[in-house]
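S.,

Sequence below, as promised.
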Amino acid sequence: MGLLLDGKKIANEIQSEVAQRVGELINNNKRVPHLAIILIGEDGASHSYVNGKMKACKAVGFEYTLLQFATTITEKKLFKHIEQLNQDDDIDGFIVQLPLPKHISVEHIIPLIDSKKDVDGFTNHNFGSIVSDQPLLLPATPFGVMELLKRYQVTTKGKHCVIVGASRIVGAPMSLMMVEQAQATVTICHKFTQDLAKHTRNADILIVAVGKPGLITADMVKSGVVIIDVGTTRIPDATKKSGFRLSGDVDFEKVAPLSSFITPVPGGVGPLTIASLLLNTLKAYERHHD
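The prediction came back faster than expected:
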């Protein structure tokens, strides 16, 4: 079996580094970074993710504020709250937790966020900076994947990276980062790609982010492949106290023996998304004060 890429371990390393920086700020009588989170509705997964983000903020010494609204909030009222956060000098960064209710358009919301406070890295300004000489606030999940590859010293230069999933949140920015920062040759696949296995079998590095449990099977990869499984889906499981288990997009048990490196689910990319959010908040804070 390939070496497990322990996202939780790397996330803890990052949190320790951020906490050390916060400690320096406190010792110098400076205010600490402040993250705000907008949460709408009662989606269980969203509440779980937000609780994890607040717990991480507390662990590193950040201030944090949760703005929670009913599912019935209108776009107009949400716009006003976003504008208030944009104008609040005590808030260094904020996120709008996705998914949103059907009557609120993500395409309407994201452009309203001040790019200097966009610690999810979703605005056009931050997204576009991926291909610049000075990247700004990078999309959190791909940023986490890059940290994982770097800290495990996974060779990427000149390797063929196949990305399955072309979303603006993961797949699209991931492809740009693998070209610009990792110097890999990239193929990106999506729901219209024909004969997916033909592409995945050629991958030296395979990154999968579509939310379809077990999509990648053993016959779809070559020996020695590096597997990054971003997919996280809740599967009903009566044997679990929570009533569900988490499943990735890769058939871990069958694929792991063929890999050189592989991320588990859970414990792989998930913790790194939160760690990247902390890094982005710290960066936004430092840019604000500079």
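The chain has a mean pLDDT of 95.

Coffee later?
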